[in-house]
Amino acid sequence: MPRRQSRFTPQEIAADPRLRDDSPGLWDRQLGETERGLLTSAVRCFAANGYHATTTRDIAAGVGLSPAALYVHFPAKELVLFEIMAAGHRSALACIEDSPAGAAATAAGGLAAIVARYTAWHARHHVAARVCQFELAGLTATHYGEIRQLRHRTNEVFRDAVARGVDEGAFAPADVNRVVRAMLSLGIDLVRWYRLDGPDSPDQLGEFYAGLALKMVMNTGGTGPAPVDRPA
Description:
Low-confidence stretches: 222-232
Structural class: mainly alpha
Strand content: under 5%
Helix content: 55-70%
CATH superfamily of the largest domain: Tetracycline Repressor, domain 2
Largest sheet: none
CATH class of the largest domain: Mainly Alpha
């Protein structure tokens, strides 16, 4: 949601339908109910006001606790951000690593599966994904390094899928890194505007973006596009 000069209050955040998504399902089930509630409150506060403008009072108010209560569960606000970042990046990576892309009959089918899943994940978790993408500067250097490694692994999944198609001749010769950056941007940028109560479901948007991604790379050779496996 767009930032404004004045901050959103905890009451406004709690009532805003734009801040509703499936992010609460990302938190480690080994965490207690209060800790998971604090993470859900924090991710909405960070998405609405930004990490630095969010106070511990804001986060605690979202679950009806005193400001000092947060420190019982998280010794520092940065640790809340890191927990959100780690959960989001690991989940997004697992989503595409679990896709049947490697076993797909065609390179196009494999790439389509990855793009569809990555896009749908960002739509379902658009609030947490917004924080994961736009609040990296709030992390310590050590924690940033850990998240950076997860991001590199995600990029590698996309690069392998595009490179496979280029090597097999199914995709037109291209700068793989540039193409991958464009595809990642498709799936990521939707977190700026997506709402679960909008006209497109996460899966519908994923399938549509998968089609756009294939149009970037397909080598038709004048005979029409290669066959495409339906994304799983």
